[in-house]
Hints:
The protein has helices at 25-37, 58-66, 204-207, 234-257, and strands at residues 5-11, 15-21, 41-52, 82-90, 93-96, 101-102, 115-119, 124-134, 145-161, 176-179, 194-196, 211-228. Helices cover 19% and strands 38% of the residues. It contains 4 helices and 12 strands. The strands form 3 sheets. A 6-stranded mixed beta sheet has the order 1-2-12-9-10-11. Strands 3-8-4-6 form a 4-stranded antiparallel beta sheet, covered by helices on one side.
Amino acid sequence: MPEYEVQFVERDDRTARFAVRPITPAFANGIRRAMIADVPTLSVDTIRFVENSSVMFDEQIGLRLGLVPLTTPPGEFEIGEEVTLSIDVEGPETAYSGDIVTSDELVQPADDNIPIIDLKEDQRLEVEADAVLDVGREHAKHQGGVAVSYRHLQRVEVVGEKGEFDDDEPQILRGVIEEAAAEHAVGDAENGDLVATETFDNDLTNRYPGKELEVTDIEDAFVFDVETDGSMSADDLVLEAIGTIEDRAAELKETVQL
Length: 258
């Protein structure tokens, strides 16, 4: 088994950008798919309306409640387990996700300011619901990774000086580069640093003025951009996704050996 190197470029609770090497394109895509389709999250599945005197149909209210991300602590629930929720708001008032009351303190709306319905005078919304744990491949509302992508890590090298009469046109690049020409870069830099292209407005001519450049893909290195809906942290989403890949690999190995 190869030893994988992981380098973070950006990292906070809901978003992360990191490079992984050495991996193949197929493995990179497997990680992406696992984050989207295989990590279970809680989402409203069954709804019981006590009263809905708003202008919106029950089905529309149900759709909106189903799209409210709910915090899902990894390992606390099994697939198919349910948590009871309720909401009771009377107009004139706007019902928000923060008005949802849960039967389990571990499960809360990931954001409190998601509007559900604007209630007028004498209108009321009273609902009970069951949130179920399931995975994204069964329904998109269970996708904790709302934006997951990957692309090759790229290396930029200086191959010469621009000619006196060469056009100094922008050279746009998006993603992350591995610094290989630190002595020519604007600002503090060391060879081997990972640099997000946004830091120099995605234009290589800002970072290496007056230089002829060569940009190449690093074949076995990929940069992942991950954003969650708040149901879990970006770190947990990645770790849970890797765990599902390990579980499937172990299951396959056991099956083949029978």
